[in-house]
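call fold target=TYRO-like protein
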Amino acid sequence: MKTPSRTSAAQSDNLFIYIIQLNNSNQGPFHRMYDTFANLHQGIVITSAHEGPNFFGWHRVYLSLFEEALRRINRRLSLPYWDSSLDFDMENPVNSILFSPPFLGNGDGFVTSGPFANWQTPSGPLTRNIAEASRLLSKEVIQMILTRCRTREISDPTAQPQFNLEIAHGGPHVWIGGQMAGLNTAAHDPVFFMHHAFIDYIWELFRIRQFRFCGVNPSRDYPPTMGQHAPTRAMDGLPGYRNIDGYRSYWTRFWYRYERSPRCSMRRPYCGTPYLTCDRMRGRCISVARMLAPDEGAPALGAAAAFSATGRAASPRSSRARLQAASIDVGPRFRAPPAEPRTQAAQLSLMRVRRALPEGNQTETSIAKSKGGFTAPPSDGRTSDAMGFNIASGVPGGHDRVIDARNNGHVFPVSEPMEVLPPTVNTDQRLPDNFTTYDNSKNGNVSEWLFVPVLVKYHDSSQSTRPNTYSILRPRQSDACFYEHTEVHVKVQSQGLNYLGAYTDYLIFESNLPASTSPGFVAVRAPNVGPSEAMVTATHGCGHMCLPTCLVPDSKPALYQPCAGILKLMPIDVAKFRKSYDDASATYERGRNGLDRPEQDPPIVFHCSPRSYSPWASPGRHVVAGL
């Protein structure tokens, strides 16, 4: 059951503790599992799970598997959704209690408070710059989306902009800024999963409307699509599922259900939590405001209040947040609605307009007075004339409830933030300028990269028996993969966990043989300063995943056991591997033939068959391949 945000601080702390445990850097059953999930939201997923109808289904399966990983730690846990419309309806969403120590920590620059303080990502320290641009979701936008009846009316590429839920979902991504603004980096901010749970909640409201009022079966309303969004295509990164599987009704029938977003009225002015207050005039629950720090300055309401004549933010924290957010490389950003007036982008634009006026002492105000004032629509209920808010001074006039409670936003004393583990030794996480994604067809600068051998074994399960060692991993409910040709193509890929980068190698097997073996080679950043960690996967045929097994350290002869495919290299391992694909391949062959040096046991061996084996479904122990 997914619950709304801010139900209680104690529940939030429990969730954050388990998210942190999911990313624990010590070896164990949940070793780097958070980074493993976060890294699924990059690469080919940027196109196959975005800008098309698979956006909804892929993210629903993704959230469900992530929640199940959390529930393996605590079966009573559920993933809450962040209803950002509760913050949009504030005077100034920047002041939301959500961005305070009991919840998500600060939103201005590097995250140094709250449960995710000093959280490290492959692109650098976790960073935010709230109200940078775009906008949060509003109830008006959600209501517009819920007037439609067919999925094609709210999804790319056929939806009109005002009804397009995917474009609307990009607003909070860009509004938060930092890693959340980038398609390849967003999932490394834990707020990603709470935001997408709310998008999934809106989609579920839409599906309920389809069934009850439109006479449409939501499980079959997958728009006709070809290419990566084709309904029967295997989901990228989520083995055992097809794109249309995310549209099945059983997710909300058997896996989870949603609590309704908080609401209130004149007769019932309660929202069920001290972190929300009821706006009786509009009959809406809104977030309470946190107490601002001394150096945050005036709330960013209007260009005159928050920006100086040079167009820079008057608040020192705002200036620092922009510089820190600009220091990280997030790659391509989400498509999002235009900036609303309370964001930095809109205010900078207003300042540019002000500076573009005719020379002299004439200002917008004097022009307005000389012409009798501007023609404008009535107040929207949030302006100073409606609520007594002095925009120039930034002092609230009694509308947004402010929480101080002597401990910077904590209402419940038990709700103390938990610090995460200290950052890794290696703080230089930038890649070479010409590095994007490695494969054998591109010539990149690999002087700082090592090529590690992995072994791939293809078994036809109808002709051979798998060893008992692998019986703990059972295939998910997926159909066997049948090949039209005699060749089986296997893609081996490494994705950095504490660095940003990926490499892909391709192998070919004969499908008519009962068993065959072939080595592959993946690039991993050289651990010159500190350890390097990468997630290595092998996918074959119609998208099914191969079973990874890791070398048991110091085992003679070599023993392997099921693992999550996580490879960890230490500085002492640099001399063991080569800096080019050709050298690594030649060295491996010489070792296998007994020349120059003994054959080195590969740290990971993959077992592929016509069925898919998923590490997410495994109750077994997840180990790390160390050398």
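return ok
The mean pLDDT is 75. Residues 191-214 form the longest helix (24 residues).
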